[in-house]
Design brief:
By secondary structure, this protein is mostly helical. The chain contains eleven helices and no strands.
Length: about 260
């Protein structure tokens, strides 16, 4: 019960925060661009909406831009912003004065970040749906997409990318809890993201946790330059290791505020 109350409290803190707006805008940003691009070519729009693979076409187009850079970038920023709300407002001492154990506080704040990412994925998929159906309401002669939405395939794809994000969430959480300066976790995250983009074609790229979204997208596209690797197993393992290390450092940290 304490965890539920603590989670609700942490969830209320992020209301109207920069992280909340980042999730909202980020979820619709790429689908909106894809929608505008589709509406600039009526002939292509008609061919795609009458195709039996219209949702695969739109989904792949959206994920192409999201998975390679914007998704890990968004996780870096959102995770750091949420974790550092107490540093920003200088309220760690008030938080630790509440009748909550350190374990409850730690996992409640981490759970808020994870749930926010789930919220982002929901918004992103709503955006993909709108990118497919909106033109049929705006242009005469453009039919509603002929293909039924492949819910199972899209859910599987979303679950895979969500798992790919877990180690990034955990590592950004770890770093953000240890440093007061917001630029430190963001700088480290960006450096690791750039390193992963350079290493993505390396045969051992699966040891770089920030590369999993890119590797997963390329594996789904059967890119011959990227060997198939069990990135989801590695991602979950990294998440457990980073979370465990973060918990130990947080509990043992003498100055927590």
């Amino acid at each position: 019960m304490n965890f539920i109350h603590c989670f609700r409290s942490e969830w209320l803190k992020k209301k109207n925060s920069a992280a909340s707006w980042l999730m909202l805008i980020g979820g619709f940003f790429i689908p909106l661009i894809i929608l505008i691009a589709r509406m600039t070519d009526i002939d292509m729009l008609y061919r795609e909406n009458t195709s039996l693979h219209v949702w695969e076409i739109i989904s792949n187009r959206c994920w192409q831009f999201m998975a390679v850079f914007l998704l890990p970038m968004g996780v870096i920023l959102a995770g750091s912003l949420i974790t550092q709300l107490e540093f920003k407002n200088n309220t760690w001492k008030q938080v630790h004065a509440t009748p909550q154990s350190l374990s409850v506080l730690f996992f409640a704040k981490l759970s808020v970040i994870v749930v926010m990412m789930l919220q982002f994925f929901v918004l992103f998929n709503i955006g993909i749906y709108l990118a497919g159906v909106v033109p049929s309401f705006l242009f005469r002669g453009i039919p509603y997409p002929q293909e039924s939405i492949p819910f199972v395939a899209m859910l599987k794809l979303n679950m895979e990318f969500f798992i790919d994000c877990l180690p990034v969430i955990a590592l950004q959480y770890l770093i953000s809890l240890q440093f007061r300066n917001f630029l430190v976790p963001v700088g480290v995250g960006l450096a690791l993201l750039v390193a992963s983009m350079i290493a993505v074609s390396w045969k051992y790229a699966y040891i770089v946790p920030y590369a999993y979204c890119m590797l997963d997208f390329m594996n789904n596209r059967n890119n011959p330059s990227v060997p198939g690797t069990p990135v989801h197993t590695w991602a979950f393992a990294y998440f457990m290791v980073f979370t465990g290390l973060s918990y130990i450092l947080y509990i043992r940290k003498k100055e927590k505020g």
